[in-house]
Specification:
This is Aldo-keto reductase. With about 300 residues, the protein is α/β, with parallel strands linked by helices. It has 12 helices and 10 strands.
Amino acid sequence: MMKTLLAAALGGAAAVDPAPTIAIAPNVNLPYVALGTGSGQHGSVANATALWLGSSAGKAIDTSIIYGDQPAIAAGIAALGIDRSAYFLETKIVTEDFRHYANHTSIAAEIDENLRELGVAYVDLLLIHFPGTASANREAWMALEAALAAGQTKAIGVSNFGKLNLEALKLAATVWPPAVNQLELSVSYHDDDLLAYHAEEGIVVQAYSPLCGGFNGSSCTAHGGKNVLTVPEVKSLATKYGVSGAQIGLKWIVQQGHPLATSIWNKDYMDEDLTLWNFNISDADMATLSAVYQPEE
C-alpha cells in the first residue's frame, strides 16, 4: 500500500520549486500554502500528505492534537522517505479549558503526544488552538516557551486569539510576539481592524478557511460569509485571469502577505492551490475582492 501511495505522490509536480515562504521567526520560514487536515479533510490523510509533500511546492502540513490524524500524517511522510528538514510541520495544543478534547493532564504531555504521534523530535511551529481563560492561556504559553527552549519546536504562536486575548497574554510572556496567529480569513470574511493590529505587533496571520469552507461550509458563515467559489466577483475575475475561482480566492490572501492553510485531498486541486505565483491580481481587482465582505453594523 505504501509503495502505491509513494508512486502516486511522485506522479506529478506543481509549478513552483522552491516553495515561496515567509519569515515567522529567526531562521524559521513558513511556506505560504500549507495542507490543513482536520475537519476539512474528506479523503485519506496519509495519501493527501504524501501527495502534497511529494510535489515541488507542497512543503507544509498544518494539524492539531484534537484532529486525531497525526499518525496518518506520519504514515504519509514515511511513505515518501524524506528527511525531516525537507518539510514544515505545524501542530496545536489546547489549554486546560479544552482538555476534554486532548485527554491529557498537562500541556507538556500534549506536546509530547504530538511529537510521538507525528514520529518526529520537533515541529516547526506549535500553536495554542483556541484561547481559554487568561490564566489557562498563560499556563499554555509558558509551556510553549519551555518547548521552544527545549528544542521541541522552532517557533510558537496561537490560533483564534483576538486583540484582548493577545494583550492579556503579552503581560506574562517572555517570548513575544507570537510567530503566528492562525485566523479565519477569506474574501468572504476578514476582520480588518484585527489584521491591522497584527501588522503593528509583528505577528504573521495565517489564514484558515481561506475559501470559507468551499462547498462544505465553514464557521465563517456565522460572520455573514459564504462559499468564496460562489462569489460573483471571484467568478468574474477567474475568467478574466484564466484561473480557477479557488486560485483567485487564495491569491487574494497570499498577495497581501498572508500565508494560508487549505484542506484538500485531490491532486488536481493541490496543483491549483500550489500554483499561485504565475499571475498577479491588479490593485483595482484586489480592492474589488476586499469590498466583497461588508461587516454588519
